[in-house]
């Protein structure tokens, strides 16, 4: 979804312990561990656009 919307490469970095984090230009924009949930599709798009 993000790859098609923003025409950019998206990398999945393996981790452990249920961690799911989204970074843009090395800046953390979403943390499942902090929020206690996964982001919605629309939320993800808004976070990446910032």
Description of the molecule:
The protein is α+β, with helices and mostly antiparallel strands and about 50 residues long. The chain has one domain. It has a two-stranded antiparallel sheet. Strand 1 and strand 2 form a beta hairpin.
- What is the helix content? 25-40%
Report the C-alpha radius of gyration, rounded: 11 Å
The overall average pLDDT, rounded, is 84
How far apart, in Å, are the first and last alpha carbons?
17 Å
**Low-confidence segments:** none
**Number of E-type strands:** 2
Provide a quick synopsis of the model:
By secondary structure, this protein is α+β, with helices and mostly antiparallel strands.
Task: Please tag this protein with its features.
50 residues; alpha+beta; two-stranded antiparallel sheet; 3 helices; globular
How do the helices and strands line up, and which of them pair or pack?
Layout: H1 2-6, E1 21-24, E2 27-31, H2 32-35, H3 41-49
Antiparallel strand pairs: 1-2
